[in-house]
Amino acid sequence: MGEFELIRNFFAAAPCAQGGEGVALGIGDDCALLDVPFGEQLAISTDTLVAGVHFADPCDPFLLGQRSLAVAASDLAAMGATPLAFTLALTLPTVDADWLEAYARGLNLMAQGCGLRLIGGDTTRGPLCLTLTVFGRVPNGQALTRSGAQPGDLLCVGGELGNGAGALPLVLNQLSAGPSIAEPLLAHYWSPQPQLALGQVLRGKATAALDISDGLLADCGHIAAASRVGLLIENDRLPISLALQEFLGDAGAQQAALSGGDDYVLAFTLPAVELPTLLADGWPIHVIGRVVEGRGVGLLDVDGQDITPTIRGYQHFGI
Amino acid sequence: MGEFELIRNFFAAAPCAQGGEGVALGIGDDCALLDVPFGEQLAISTDTLVAGVHFADPCDPFLLGQRSLAVAASDLAAMGATPLAFTLALTLPTVDADWLEAYARGLNLMAQGCGLRLIGGDTTRGPLCLTLTVFGRVPNGQALTRSGAQPGDLLCVGGELGNGAGALPLVLNQLSAGPSIAEPLLAHYWSPQPQLALGQVLRGKATAALDISDGLLADCGHIAAASRVGLLIENDRLPISLALQEFLGDAGAQQAALSGGDDYVLAFTLPAVELPTLLADGWPIHVIGRVVEGRGVGLLDVDGQDITPTIRGYQHFGI
Hints:
2 copies of one chain form a homodimer.
Chain A: H1 3-12, E1 23-25, E2 32-34, E3 40-50, H2 61-79, E4 82-92, H3 97-114, E5 117-125, E6 129-139, E7 154-157, H4 163-171, H5 179-190, H6 196-201, E8 208-211, H7 216-227, E9 230-234, H8 242-259, E10 266-270, H9 275-280, E11 286-292, E12 296-300
Parallel strand pairs in A: 4-5, 9-12
Antiparallel strand pairs in A: 1-2, 3-6, 4-6, 7-10, 7-11, 8-10, 9-11
Helix pairs in contact in A: 2-3, 4-5, 4-8, 5-8
């Protein structure tokens, strides 16, 4: 038995790979088989993380295991999909049992938290690189796309912004901070919590949605373009954590919230009539702006003045 | 717009990405959406190809485009699945428009030949690496797994063996050959033809199946283990191409057929009663042995003598 086959067996033995609802056949054959209930569609998303590009190398493999699945699962949340399963394509320079054990432990913890089962993949030798493909199910026609925002809708986000970008200098050891700042930021970076439940509750309510991975402005640009509308963001309504504000100051925190990536928080447009019930039910929804006729994304200050030009120039913005 | 977004747009413009039967939503949102007809299951397989490991670097990107999808689609053939769609996770060291144009052209040609549509993926910077995930559909309970072989069944393959392994020294420029030898071998290597139609016709007939990627002996070992049976292969019945025989001689060709990888030909077990009709219908089926009580894989010479020990020792064999 080759060492890469040993690895496959190692992952196959993980609790999350034992099949279950929706998984008709898991690891070990030429294909896995999924059951998709009548009246539902299968949602699919693929994310690649490259060592030295998307994460520091070396890094803690347990944390990497959590993060690699979380960022992929966040796309299911953005679609309003119910999590089902995932595949893992793992390219490794060497076979290091300790590394693998820790990586699989982090992966499995996130998989259990998200309700995702490992159903297959590939294991190859080469520069460290991870490609995860996640699968979810969603009732026909109820997926949350980016293209349905309507003028008059509210623009909302599902949680604090900028924490992922704020954590980056800590991850890269470029800056340091006390535990009251570092711990929540690093937790957000290494173990983002895909907003799967929020995504599902927004089905049939939100008119457009995505998860913020490239930064709020860039990603709102995607909704604006796909929906052929304009989005106005009110600068003073951005939810910013105390830790981020203490760490980067007001201006730095605001910049992280507007253009930092790695938030993995949902951004969505919502008819105002839907808001009261969602808030009453305790969903973490922050209104940060509104949908208007037009194109692109604008930023307003506390007096309603357009301050967009000062924050232009980020990649993706305004597409 | 970033250069990697340009690439995404480039692939999104490919003919194979325009949606169609089964694809409810293609490239451009957080997830793609697939429709799976009532009464059918979704078959999923993932393959990674790493530069310098699974293909020479540099190599012709057009040929790589064809090959990268073909080897993944072959797993759908092995399952008896009807091809539906695929995702591409492309990690590139630099953005080279000529390379991308040629790669996409080869990929699209194979996609059209296979009936597969590109529905999403990811594009990242890093050492050249490709992960393709393919999707097919198969009627509930009719997928061809590895685990149903029964003593008494015939052991069959869907075409000539060893051509992929025979081509390897030509691909790596370790050996040369005249065009009558080199062309068919290289064509098999760079543009393997996944046996998708054969896989589908074997539904409800074959008791076990896979595609030969690790070599005949190793892969028959997988069927034997999953089905808890023994497989006996008759050495003189291996279908070997004239080109391979002329290139490597009798012994070399036989070794390539038994233990060379990269065949992407189906191997399957079949109740004898099914054979005449399939042959009469013109399917390329070669009987190379039979299923017996027991465990593992044995090789018999023309006189029925067990010559297994002489070919032991290949990775995977005998698991």
